[in-house]
Amino acid sequence: MTKAEFTAFIKSEKQQGGVRFAVALNTTGEGFMYWTKGNGVRVSQKLCGVKGKLPTVTTKKLIRQYRSWLKQT
Q1: pLDDT value at position 51?
Q2: Are 51 and 71 a contacting pair, CB within 8 Å?
Q3: For the chain, how big is the Rg over CA atoms in Å?
Q4: pLDDT tens, residue order, the chain (73 aa)
Q5: Which residue of 5, 9, 28, 34 lies most exposed, with the fewest beta carbons within 10 A?
Q6: How many other C-beta atoms can be found within 10 angstroms of the C-beta atom of residue 14?
């Protein structure tokens, strides 16, 4: 996912009532983005990673990048 695609996705979700966005690693080493809808429902979307026990170096790098982009939007 490019920066333009990521920011466009965030903006579209904000227009649909999304609030409190976060990017994190789950327990299987995959990168996810979580956000809460206006009515309190929590939604998640997988961003990157391969299911396993530990996150790879590439996945960690992408998560840092996505967090940086999220702060900029």
Answers
A1: 78
A2: no
A3: 12
A4: 899 999 999 999 999 989 899 999 888 888 899 999 988 899 988 888 777 778 888 888 889 999 999 999 8
A5: 5
A6: 13
Amino acid letter, 12: S
Q: Treating both helix axes as pointing N-terminal to C-terminal, what angle do 3-15 and 57-72 enclose, rounded to 10 degrees?
A: 50
User: Which domain does 52 fall in, by range?
Assistant: 3-72
What's the number of domains the chain is made of? 1
The per-residue pLDDT for 54 is 82
Length of the chain: 73
The encoded tokens of residue 45 equal 């979307």
